[in-house]
């Protein structure tokens, strides 16, 4: 019989150590991680690498730029700025709640693992739904990121071809190239990925600094006036058709949530990071500080550089920043240069989304929570990654791209459900933690003591419960079939699918759910066959 111990150290591969006690002979010990599984993945992501992953895949300023036209209708430039600040404050509470769970239970399953433990005797079903909601959200994040890059690519071409008429198939072809390119890199470049993500983080920070400088300097060079302080900070403009400005403000926070609503992305690399109980929460908090500051100063700079807002709202470019940059620099070449600064980190962000989604599905599969679990739950011995899970993510995203060709409205309905699905997965972990008086887990390196943790968890849950409902309202009035917000339909339909699959695995009795293994515990009453 083998005995197993958990290790929080840097191990490049599973190892068998020697365990000796006074009562028994030397017995081989297999190192396992906090989820109770063998440590199969290489721990080759250092702190700088996962911070780069978080900053790149949670790339707030580019995400805001991609939806800025829609955001402007929710209050104009002041609305975009203040709604970002409000959404960021709310997600600071969520990020802190996630950081302490990640510190206590560093597992690649993330919310799937945490919900299974914090919910106590209801952990199996809470964890099951949390894991699937989270996986589906990250699949949609891949699709959304690839579509944004596709729109950037087509818009860059259109800059130099004024008579060019954009068609959906052009974005679709670019989308498929991006999906399979990112998938292949994730499959075959596992050792290079940490360095790539660190480079992505650098490109995000360098790109926003260069863009801010250009936006500050070029209008003066071109002899054009800057936008007024009133335009940037005070001229509220409700263009949604809703009568209540307060409701419009809350509805507009969805744009900020798309930008900052990925606090769990780093947590799914826990089994590939040395000392994850410390490094994961550090990286989560660093991601939010960098993301918020870069997004805020970026928005301020581009709004001051706008000379013709109507031209931006009426622009035919698929990627809204194209026209903004053209106005800022005064040339197509200048706009292209700034677009490249956002294009490059977006490519790395797409790879980061593949990393995240594949890790979530792999952790579900190794607990028999997915179809074809035996195949998807394997780690490829040669490539040192969940090879089959990565391929599956590519196939699903490829099919989602086909939806885009058939109906852009249907595709937008799917990707627009990302925020609701992801926040529901957070709720499934944080709410049981709060209701159990935070007593079902042992505190990790990062822990909010006493009433502070209770308040932070309560605010997180309150925000999610209220805004999940708000984010399902139509974006503007009046509403027709094309402009309807189908988030509630997509989220509800996917949840029904998860519920049906839960019935299958529950009836079969194959799903046990993840376990919590205390860090540093030496001899566990488990055997490895």
UniProtKB/TrEMBL annotation:
Transmembrane domains' residue ranges: 47-73, 79-104, 125-149, 169-189, 201-221, 241-262, 283-306, 338-365, 386-407, 413-435, 455-477, 483-505
GO MF annotation list: transmembrane transporter activity
Highest taxon listed in the record's lineage: Eukaryota
Subcellular location: Membrane
Coarse class of the protein's main subcellular location: membrane
Bias kind Basic and acidic residues: ranges: 1-13
Region (Disordered): 1-20
UniProt xrefs under Pfam families: AA_permease_2 (PF13520)
Keywords: Membrane, Transmembrane, Transmembrane helix, Transport
Any Gene Ontology biological process: amino acid transport
Membrane topology designation: Multi-pass membrane protein
GO cellular component: membrane
Name assigned to this protein: Probable choline transport protein
Organism (species): Phialocephala subalpina
């Amino acid at each position: 019989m083998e005995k197993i111990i958990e290790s929080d150290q840097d191990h490049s591969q599973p190892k068998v150590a020697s365990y000796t006690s006074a009562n028994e002979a030397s017995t081989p010990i297999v190192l396992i991680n906090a989820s109770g599984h063998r440590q199969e993945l290489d721990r080759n992501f250092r702190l700088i690498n996962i911070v780069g992953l978080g900053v790149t895949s949670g790339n707030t300023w580019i995400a805001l730029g991609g939806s800025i036209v829609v955001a402007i209708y929710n209050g104009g430039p002041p609305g975009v700025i203040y709604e970002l600040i409000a959404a960021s404050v709310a997600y600071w509470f969520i990020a802190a709640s996630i950081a302490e769970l990640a510190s206590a239970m560093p597992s690649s399953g993330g919310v799937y693992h945490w919900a299974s433990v914090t919910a106590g005797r209801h952990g199996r079903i809470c964890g099951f739904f949390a894991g699937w909601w989270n996986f589906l959200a990250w699949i949609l994040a891949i699709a959304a990121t690839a579509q944004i890059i596709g729109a950037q690519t087509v818009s860059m071409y259109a800059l130099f071809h004024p008579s060019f008429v954009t068609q959906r198939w052009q974005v679709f072809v670019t989308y498929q190239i991006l999906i399979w390119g990112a998938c292949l890199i994730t499959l075959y470049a596992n050792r290079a990925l940490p360095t790539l993500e660190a480079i992505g983080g650098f490109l995000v920070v360098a790109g926003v600094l260069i863009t801010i400088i250009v936006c500050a300097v070029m209008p003066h060079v071109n002899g054009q006036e800057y936008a007024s302080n009133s335009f940037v900070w005070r001229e509220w403009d409700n263009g949604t058709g809703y009568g209540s400005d307060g409701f419009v403000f809350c509805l507009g926070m969805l744009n900020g949530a798309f930008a900052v609503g990925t606090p769990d992305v780093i947590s799914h690399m826990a089994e590939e990071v040395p000392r994850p109980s410390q490094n994961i929460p550090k990286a989560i908090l660093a991601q939010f500080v960098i993301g918020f500051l870069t997004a805020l100063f970026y928005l301020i700079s581009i709004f001051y550089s706008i000379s013709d807002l109507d031209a931006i709202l009426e622009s035919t470019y698929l990627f809204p920043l194209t026209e903004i940059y053209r106005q800022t620099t005064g040339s197509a070449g200048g706009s292209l240069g700034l677009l490249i600064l956002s294009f490059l980190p977006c490519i790395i962000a797409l790879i980061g989304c593949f990393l995240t989604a594949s890790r979530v599905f792999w952790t579900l599969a190794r607990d028999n929570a997915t179809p074809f679990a035996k195949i998807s739950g394997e780690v490829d011995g040669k490539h040192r990654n969940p090879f089959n899970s990565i391929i599956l993510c590519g196939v699903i995203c490829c099919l989602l791209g086909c939806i885009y060709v058939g109906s852009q409205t249907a595709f937008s309905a799917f990707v627009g459900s990302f925020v609701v699905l992801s926040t529901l997965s957070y709720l499934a972990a944080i709410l049981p933690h709060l209701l159990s008086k935070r007593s079902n887990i042992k505190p990790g390196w990062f822990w909010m003591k006493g009433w502070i943790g209770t308040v932070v968890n309560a605010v997180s849950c309150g925000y999610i419960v209220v805004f999940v409902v708000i984010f399902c309202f139509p974006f503007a009035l009046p509403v027709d079939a094309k402009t309807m917000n189908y988030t509630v339909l997509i989220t509800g339909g996917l949840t029904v699918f998860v519920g049906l699959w839960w019935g299958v695995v529950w009836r079969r009795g194959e799903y046990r759910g993840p376990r919590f293994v205390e860090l540093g515990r030496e001899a566990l009453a488990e055997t490895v066959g």
